[in-house]
Amino acid sequence: MSQATHETTTAKPHQPHPHKEHEAPKKNSKGFVIALVVLVVVGGTFGFSKYVHGLHHQETDDAQIDASISPVIPRIAGYVTEVRVKDNQRVKKGDTLVVLDSRNELIQVTQMQAAVTAAESNQSVAEANTTASKSAIATYEANVATADAQIEAAKITLRRATQDYDRYANLIKDHSITQQQFEQAEAAKQSAERQLQVLMDQKNAAIRQSGAAAAQSNATARQVGVADATIQQRKADLENARLNLSYTVIIAPEDGLVSKVNVQPGQYLQAGQSLFSVVPDENPWVVGNFKETQLSKMRIGQKVSVHVDAFPGHEFEAKLTSFSPATGARFALLPPDNASGNFVRVVQRLPVKIDFAGSDPLVKDLRPGMNVDVDVHID
Model pTM? Predict the structure, then answer.
């Protein structure tokens, strides 16, 4: 009896409680609703905060650190004899970076010095000739003056001799004088005439000699001018040779860090060939490329917050200083031409320069090309 009862009891199937089956779906749906409400609230709060933030800020992650980069370029061609810097080395302005073979330049300097000496010697000779010509002119002019005085005296002598001759000619007719006296008067007159003619010829010769000396003086003066111009040209050539000699030593243009040095001793360099660069220690700046639709409320002088990827969690203070005169596409090697082909309207970006403000010590550790995030406070 008890065994049958036990079998009957064990064979009876388990019946689930009807209230528990309805309670489980209710709990799951309630949790889903709560999660959805929380998600909507969080999303709405985040979206509203972003909307409010967008009313007062303009942001972009298309921005990089920029700085002045001075190229190291030889001004003359030559072979490298010595390289005195290494990659990433810090240098001071005026430090020697590369030395070129200077033997040709030294020879040119010596040649130009000799040319200057020769030109100065030629100038001295021309000046001496000019001085001699001027002295000759003075002598000939004195001779002309002497001849004039002698001619005046000869004229007086001729006038007296002529008067004596005329008087003796009247007296000879009356036989008041002898024939000998008349002949003496006639001879005196003829002698005075010849003397006057000789003096006139001497004066004319002195005038011609003075003119020739003046012409020679002018010629020597021109020679002096040519010699002086030659000296100036030779001195300019000498300065150019010395300048080329100084160019055999390539120095650092600014204080800063040297980039990768791609120069080896024995290498032949062309004038104007870019060797490497020196990044100066001057304060860097940020170039942010903002969409043209972001520029309506941006003004020079606005405060800017800069976050550099290399220094996560650190905020740099800066200010907006200038706008580019054209979009970045206009400065590209092949700018777009919207008048050819199919036109697709693309939002353009304008480079904006942003300078760091304050005295943040980490600014000196920034390097050109680093990525940054820029936040402009538009009000």
Answer: 0.62
